[in-house]
Amino acid sequence: MRFIESILFKDGVYKNLSIHQERMDDVFKKYAPGNNSHALIRILPDLKMEGTYKVRLVYDMDTEDVEYDIEFAEYQPRQIKTLQVVHSKPFDYSMKFEDRTKINKLVKSSNADDIIIAIDNHITDGSYFNLAFWNGVEWLTPDTPLLKGVKRTQLMQEGKIKETTIQISDLNAFEKVSLINAMIGLGELELPISAIEIPKTGG
Asked: Which of 65, 86, 160, 161 gives the lowest tally of CB atoms within 10 Å of its CB?
């Protein structure tokens, strides 16, 4: 089984490495109990580049000795102007698996630029990002994420977002949504709620 860490490298520094390390440690505890996790700081190359890069670390837990593939590329943010809420049956993406078959099928079912996945009418995540909704006073993030992302964890630790239950019927009470992940900070990619195609009824 293969897993991914997508890490922001900006102006010579790997960002939020301790949170990435915690998530990787959790993978080892679950899928390789008794084996010690590996230190990311020793695995990642000592890069000297300026600018913003996405470092993609893929590691295979099915081999006797864990193997790592590392790629890095200058970061080019996606243009997302529309979102669609899509319903899904429950599935597990609590770890950052390389296999994204289920998520990719949901993306293909939509004509929007990206999706918001709803399970049992509860808002979870987008295809590649967690969500934070602005209600005019504070940023709120769903308490039912598929994946507890690195940026989401950082923002919660800093008290910049709060976790709460958000259902489809709650969406119109918000003003806007911020898409967040390891590469995208709070407020860097925002859409008005009117840019979200919301089902009129649950199902």
From this structure: 65
**Domain endpoint, select from 45, 74, 103:** 74
Residues 91 and 68 in one domain: no
Looking at 23, 56, 74, the residue that finishes a domain is 74
pLDDT given for residue 19 in this prediction: 98
β-pair partners for 178: 132, 190
The answer to whether residue 110 sits within a structural domain is yes
Which DSSP letter does residue 158 get? Answer: T
Task: Identify whether residues 91 and 191 lie together within a single domain.
Answer: yes
In this structure, the answer to whether residues 99 and 60 fall within a common structural domain is no
The count of other CB atoms within 10 Å of the CB of residue 19 is 20
Nearest in space to 68 (alpha carbons), one of 3, 22, 147 = 3
pLDDT for 61 equals 85
Which whole-number Å values give the CA distances from 166 to 3, 34, 83, 98, 127, in the listed order? 28, 38, 16, 27, 17
Distance from C-alpha of 179 to C-alpha of 58, rounded to nearest angstrom: 23
Q: Taking 90 as the threshold, does the pLDDT of residue 197 lie above it? A: yes
Task: Provide the H-helix boundaries in the chain.
Answer: 17-31, 40-43, 101-108, 150-157
DSSP category for residue 175: S
Residues 54/8, Cβ–Cβ less than 8 Å: yes
Task: Specify the CATH number for the domain of residue 28.
Answer: 3.30.470.10
